[in-house]
Amino acid sequence: MYNNVGSQPGVGMPTASPQPGPFGNTLYGASSGLIRGGLGAYGEKILGSSSEYVQSNISRYFSDPQYYFQVNDQYVRNKLKVVLFPFLHRGHWTRITEPVGGRLSYKPPIYDINAPDLYIPFMAFGTYVVLAGFSLGLQGKFSPEALNWLFIKGLLGWFMQVALLKVSLLSLGGGEAPLLDMVAYGGYAFTGLCLAVLGRIIFSYSYYFLMPWTCICMGVFLVKTMKRVLFAEVRSSDTSKHHYLLIFIALAQFPLFTWLGNVTVNWLI
Predict the structure, then answer these.
(1) N or C: which end of the chain has fewer CB atoms below 10 A?
(2) Distance CA 110, CA 112 (A)
């Protein structure tokens, strides 16, 4: 017998899912390919431009960190003499340049006594914290909290010194000097601070002679350096403003050194 049930659509037989037409497949493949390709190119462009932006800003504001650690024993000895006794420096204060890749570049510290480095500032900062902690121990006021405060205090003083130099440049229309140059010049203050704190440990009254001396020496060093090295990039013609700012930088060393040289922390005891 002939079964009419099988001939009825949707009864007893599975229905096939509708297949898209050839134009649908073509449009789907083309659109997905365009989307993937467009997103890929757009993402590559974003990542590429971001990478170039980061690299350009790092090279502009941070320069090459390895440059600042190319030192030797002779450089360290001579640099300490220049920082602690700038009056005895008979040579020039300008940095030495050399052609590298078709443009002028500064020679590293190992070849130029006037080049900034970060080895001496970091070593001096660590020595300052150790000497300050030792001084507190002699006073019977040492504690981990006091040492932490001295560490933070030193970093804050370093930051204020760098900010002073950077703001001075910006106020004259400059500011193209690498940030690590500012960090290095500001960190040299801890060499004089170490000398003053060590003098207080050995003979307490020597502190009152060493502290003003180190302030004056640091002021002279920064004035010579900023005038000959950094302000050469400034296009301002107001020389009187230059002089006022240089004097202000030199005078600012006295309150800064006095604050950092005071290693007593009575408020913690």
Answers:
(1) N
(2) 6
In a domain, 220, yes or no: yes
- Which single residue is written with the structure tokens 């801890």? 190
Q: Is residue 44 part of a domain?
A: yes
Is 96 within 8 Å of 111 (Cβ atoms)? yes
Closest residue by Cα to residue 261 from 183, 182, 219, 201:
201
The vertex-84 CA angle with 68 and 214, nearest 5°, equals: 120
Mean pLDDT, residues 244-267: 85
Residue 236 scores a pLDDT above 90: no
- Tally of domains within the chain: 2
Q: Can you give the pTM of this predicted structure?
A: 0.73
Q: Which two tokens stand for residue 209?
A: 């002679």
Instruction: Mention every residue, 6+ apart, whose C-beta is less than 8 A from residue 187.
Output: 118, 120, 121, 122, 124, 125, 158, 161
Instruction: Tell me the pLDDT tens digit for each residue of 204-234.
Output: 889 899 999 999 999 999 999 888 755 555 5
Specify if 13 maps to a domain. Answer: no
Q: Which domain holds residue 262?
A: 112-268
Three-state SS string over the chain comes to: CCCCCCCCCCCCCCCCCCCCCHHHHHHHHHHHHHHHHHHHHHHHHHHHHHHHHHHHHHHHHCCCHHHHHCCCHHHHHHHHHHHHCHHHCCCCCCCCEEEECCEEEECCHHHCCCCCCCHHHHHHHHHHHHHHHHHHHHCCCCCHHHHHHHHHHHHHHHHHHHHHHHHHHHHCCCCCCCHHHHHHHHHCHHHHHHHHHHHHHHCHHHHHHHHHHHHHHHHHHHHHHHHHHHHHHCCCCCHHHHHHHHHHHHHCHHHHHHHHHCCCCHHHC
